[in-house]
Design a protein that fits this description.
The structure is a single chain. The protein is mainly α and 454 residues long. The chain has a domain of 173 residues. It has 21 helices and no strands.
Length: 454
């Protein structure tokens, strides 16, 4: 390895570790301020313990009983905290992957789970830096550092999104490099099983791309299907009425004023863990799901149809795959319920940004500006700052200008994700059908790049 590459590798690893460390320390400090810590993991942990003890995790009373018996409840605990834990809404397949942790006492279980999330997110960032080495490694490292330093909520709550996104990004790295393919298939299958709404569009791209990627997508789907059958058989045996109960829990948590509602009245709407789908921005103008849902689905659906059509018509999807994945990483967040920690999937946009920056020109500048803005405006620290500014300005919600200001300060993630999705979609369309169609700017497997990976 040449000296410059050695120095680059060392400095990249150092800064990635520093930024991860900042998020870990800050996130754990914030998480420990909540009784029990790692609030989101408490939900899946106690839900799985409930199932292991042969009771219905989708029944709030049964789950609360397990929670109390394990010493989870505190006299100072708020109703919102308790309901976050005891109103179970995760997919049945999640039980299989949390079960090994739920067999352990709470303290080692949540520490091991948090360590797994930290390791997977760090590895995912390292993989994206590795794939950007031939183009703009410095730019890629900078973008990854910005993302990693804004993972406080993810690390503090230990949400399953950290595992899902880390595994998905690593799987993509495996497929692009044609290395550890079997492991990549298993990683993609696990991420699909736990949170298909996070990584489903990535899987869809692999399916539409054809060739060996379609084969890998189908293999991952087969593994996911097997885990789903096992989970459903287990759950149905213990809790035969789980499906209507799950629907009821979902309806309650997404109702007006609920934790997962995208509208202005959401309990988390003005926090750094706000909902970031397109509905969240549209609801500021018309807080009615009969309006904001169809509008959001129509806009996101149109972009998705255009992208899928372009992938199918591309003579060689692999040559422009990073631009398609960059568009998908942003578009995935817009269609349905997501929070800022889900947007760490924007890691998949970094190699595309590095390619465009290396080529130079206006498109390269736009790529860096928009990708940086996308990572920042879905990041915990910038969102917290904007929300504090919003409190001091107190925009009038009855005027159009007040609504615009409210969107800019309290729903910036939704807007930048839409802009980012449109930008990378346009780049992809130009590469496939425009003047750049004959150029090959992406890494080829026949010419391996020097690696930043350890």
């Amino acid at each position: 390895m040449v000296p410059n590459m050695k120095n680059l590798r060392r400095s990249s690893l150092f800064w990635l570790l520093v930024c991860t460390g900042i998020s870990v320390l800050w996130g754990f400090a914030a998480g420990n301020s909540v009784h029990g810590g790692t609030l989101d993991f408490q939900g899946v942990y106690y839900g799985t313990r409930c199932l292991l003890e042969h009771c219905d995790p989708y029944n709030e009373a049964a789950l609360e009983q397990v929670y109390r018996a394990d010493g989870g409840e505190s006299p100072s605990e708020t109703l919102q905290h308790r309901r976050t834990v005891t109103l179970y809404v995760n997919l049945p397949t999640t039980f299989l992957f949390i079960a090994p942790f739920a067999l352990l006492p709470w303290s080692p279980a949540h520490l091991l789970w948090a360590a797994l999330i930290i390791a997977l997110i760090f590895i995912a960032a390292l993989c994206m830096c590795d794939l950007s080495t031939r183009h703009a490694p410095g730019t890629a490292v900078l973008l990854c550092c910005i993302l990693l330093v804004n993972c406080e909520v993810l690390f503090g709550t230990a949400n399953t999104a950290g595992v899902v996104i880390g595994l998905c990004v690593f799987a993509v790295w495996c497929f692009i490099n044609n290395r550890y393919v079997v492991l990549g298939i298993l990683c993609l299958a696990v991420s699909l099983a736990i949170k298909p709404h996070d990584v489903g569009f990535v899987w869809l791209y692999l399916l539409l791309a054809g060739g060996v990627q379609r084969k890998r997508a189908l293999q991952a789907l087969a593994v996911t299907a097997v885990t789903a059958v096992i989970a459903l058989l287990w759950l149905s045996h213990v809790a035969p009425h789980w499906l209507p109960e799950m629907r009821s829990n979902l309806a309650e948590i997404t109702a007006q004023g609920g934790l997962n509602e995208p509208g202005p009245s959401s309990k988390t709407g003005r926090t750094a863990s706000m909902v970031i789908d397109l509905q969240a921005a549209v609801s500021v103008f018309e807080d009615d799901p009969r309006v904001y849902n169809p509008v959001s689905y129509a806009a996101s659906g149109a972009l998705l149809v255009i992208l899928c059509g372009a992938i199918l018509r591309s003579p060689d999807p692999a040559r422009n795959e990073w631009f398609a994945l960059a568009a998908i990483s942003a578009l995935s967040m817009l269609v349905t319920y997501h929070r800022p920690y889900d947007a760490k999937l924007l890691l998949l946009s970094i190699p595309a940004c590095a390619v465009l920056w290396a080529e130079g020109g206006l498109t390269g500048w736009l790529a860096v500006f928009l990708t940086s803005a996308g990572i920042l405006l879905t990041g915990d620290i910038p969102l917290a700052i904007l929300l504090e500014i919003a409190k001091t300005l107190d925009a009038n919600p009855d005027t159009f200008s007040g609504k615009l200001l409210t969107v800019a300060l309290t729903r910036p993630a939704s807007v930048i994700l839409l802009v980012l999705a449109v930008f990378y979609l346009c780049v992809y369309l130009r590469r496939v059908f425009g003047s750049d169609a004959a150029d090959d700017h992406l890494p080829a497997e026949k010419t391996p790049a020097p690696s930043l990976a350890p």
